[in-house]
Write a structure and sequence with these properties.
With 123 residues, this protein is α+β, with helices and mostly antiparallel strands. The protein is built from two helices and eight strands. Helix content is 16%, strand content 36%. β3 and β4 form a beta hairpin.
Length: 123
């Protein structure tokens, strides 16, 4: 099962302070808008998303259709196909935002300890 690019999404209290901290560790801006409460930072293959006021908990994030540089991949497994495969494996979908037959969509599952895992397809 190919889930796409991997990152960690962190809930932060002060996005500018957090961005400055991670930049001091060598992360560089990949995209986002701090004014909207989110930014994505990259260091090598490591990606961190910082989110202020958007999520309750830190979470693992996978992006079908993207590589580790947030570039579109030619082939990928659509989030709706991933949802069906997960359900067949007995995994509960906690939040289902993958509507329609194609295009952007997302689902959230939780691991046995309640850690959220976001599968977020942008295209």
């Amino acid at each position: 099962m190919d889930l796409g690019a991997f990152s960690i999404s962190l809930t932060v209290k002060d996005i500018e302070a957090s961005k400055n901290f991670y930049e001091s560790l060598g992360f560089e801006s990949l995209g986002g808008d701090c004014g909207q409460g989110w930014t994505i930072l990259k260091n090598g293959d490591h990606i961190i998303g910082l989110f202020q006021g958007m999520f309750d908990k830190n979470m693992l994030t996978f992006n079908p259709g993207w590589d580790q540089s947030a570039q579109n991949t030619d082939a990928f497994t659509d989030v709706r196909e991933l949802r069906e495969a997960l359900v067949q494996r007995g995994i509960t979908i906690v939040n289902d935002g993958a509507t329609g037959d194609s295009g952007p969509g997302s689902i959230v599952i939780e691991d046995p300890d309640g850690n959220p895992i976001l599968i977020d397809q942008h295209r």
